[in-house]
Design brief:
The complex is a heterodimer of chains A (233) and B (400).
Chain A: E1 6-19, E2 22-35, E3 39-43, H1 50-57, E4 65-70, E5 73-74, H2 80-90, E6 91-94, H3 106-116, H4 121-134, H5 150-162, E7 168-172, H6 180-195, E8 200-203, H7 207-210, E9 215-220, E10 223-229
Parallel strand pairs in A: 3-8, 3-9, 6-7, 7-8
Antiparallel strand pairs in A: 1-2, 1-4, 4-5, 9-10
Chain B: H1 3-16, H2 18-53, E1 60-65, H3 79-88, E2 92-97, E3 100-107, E4 110-119, E5 130-133, H4 138-143, E6 147-150, H5 152-158, E7 168-171, E8 174-182, E9 198-201, H6 202-208, E10 218-222, H7 228-242, E11 249-253, H8 254-297, H9 299-307, H10 312-354, H11 362-389, H12 393-398
Parallel strand pairs in B: 4-9, 6-8
Antiparallel strand pairs in B: 1-10, 1-11, 2-10, 3-4, 3-7, 5-8, 6-9, 7-8
Helix pairs in contact in B: 1-2, 1-10, 2-8, 2-10, 2-11, 8-10, 8-11, 10-11
The chains are: A alpha/beta (233), B alpha+beta (400).
Amino acid sequence: MNSAATAIDVRDVTKTYVLGDVKVEALRGVTFTIARGEYVAIMGPSGSGKSTLMNLLGCLDVPTTGRYLLDGIDVSTLGDDALAAIRLRKLGFVFQGFNLLARTSAVKNVALPLFYAGIGVKARGATATERLREVGLGDRLDHKPAELSGGQQQRVAIARALVNDPAVLLADEPTGNLDSTTSEELMALFGDLNAGGRTIIMVTHDEGVASHARRIIRLRDGRIVDDRPTAPN
Amino acid sequence: MNLSAYIAEAFAVLVANRVRSILTALGLVIGVTAVIAIQVLGASMSGAVGGVLGSLSERTFFVVPNQRQADFTRAAIRLEDLQRLRFDVPNVIDAIPGGQTVREARIGHSRRRLGVGAQSDERFASETPLIAGRKLTPEDIALARHVCVISGEAAQKLQITGAQVGSSLRVGDHRYTIVGILDRSRAGRLPSLANFDISIPYTLYEREYARGRAIIAARVLVDDTSKIAQTESDTLAWLAALKKGRVEYQTFDRKSFSKAVDGIFAGVTLVVGLIGAVSLVVAGIGILNIMLVSVAERTREIGLRKAIGATRFQILLQFFIEALALSAFGCTVGLVLGVLIGALVNDLAIVKLSGIVAPIPWLRSIAIATGFATIVTLVFGTYPAWRAATLDPIEALRYE
């Protein structure tokens, strides 16, 4: 496989948590690759290990065994600060609860990763403004999260996730806090982003939402039980 | 590194939580204010007392009976004995009885109750310069002449000018010719220890005010000031022999006075300063507490910041600067209040009452207070910031 076309390469990854005397095997050997430009949904019942997989893919945690290559970089053995740098440059997160800074305007929320990347204040504002326009919030730049609807807040979060031009966009139950109409709008936005070349990985338990992806990986008891493309819409 | 952005963010957080920020900073305000004000007042008061001591000649020391002994009445020294001291103890030039009484002094239309003191010739007088006339001479002493030297302060009270040297001053039932007027002493408005309002020859004093009364205190003039301590102990030994060890005496000179006074002020300043320091530590614990609250409240925010790529150091910096900003705010207010209170009390109380303007170590006081507050902040601000920096992003994002 051409590594330049591979965004994510997970090889025989396990994750074991030790809770007191009890060992919990959250992932029991998971192998898959995701090419650039793919749009993948990860599904599974609670306890299936999908949250653990999401944390590993998001470089918030490292596997117990196995290898994980993100955009060609082996991140399975990196330390805290190196992982932070990977998250900053290669990944964009979208959370169920939006996780916007409440006191901070939309444009400054979006600019936050650029701040940690050490980019100057002017360039931060310009790039953040551009990203907000792309998600259709060009007229809400200076609104605080409380002044925005749920759908708009999630759009701000998506703009923030994209502001560093990441290799992969990771979305954890992105529609979990949204009504169905807004969810549909958000899925349309994800579709547009994917059509524009973005690699998107989305964790959800909602079949309707997952059906927007072009491939669904299903987990159960820490193993992949199903991995197939969705029927074309 | 965008430090200004961190600082702006820190102040934004403090303003957003303004009530608790102000309450937390209050501890620091009180501590810094106290430390500065105490040091300023200590310097100011010790300067005032130093001014009083400065009126003493370095060449004289006092001999007084030890106040704690049971039989005080045996302490009296006869004038003849006192006059023998200069022959018996090396380095002693002369010894004179100490004596001061209060009488009404009149000249022209001015009348004031003033202190009349036994003085010897100018070797005994302080270094306070004359503005007119002369000091007392050995002849004045030997002949017990009816002459006097007026202190600068007394001259002002009686409205005597230099032109009135040679005039007659009525003191109680007596008349003395004014032979000299001293300049105002460094003691300002405080009572001078060596310059009486009206100095007359001690021989005259013995005759007119102390007749038949015992001499309790004495002043001794030495030749070589570097040997003053030895001379003092020799004098005490001489007195012990004279009194056959039944009376204890003690001596004071300018140095031992200053030392005693400086010791008292240093002690008071230290104790009160320590209380201020303790209040600063308590203020530091307040900062520690509120920063821990702040970190706990913003656990999800920290999780998010870490998820989008903030390093541990960047998180540490954010919360550390927040603690510093809180401290800087409290410190600044404390500095302004401390300097204001110090200056006000110094000007309105010490300087106005004593007339002495002592050098105030403003910079040192400010440096000590800010330095201590900074150390406290560094110590207590680091832990919450470290806690924030080492939070697990997964746990933090899940935090409700």
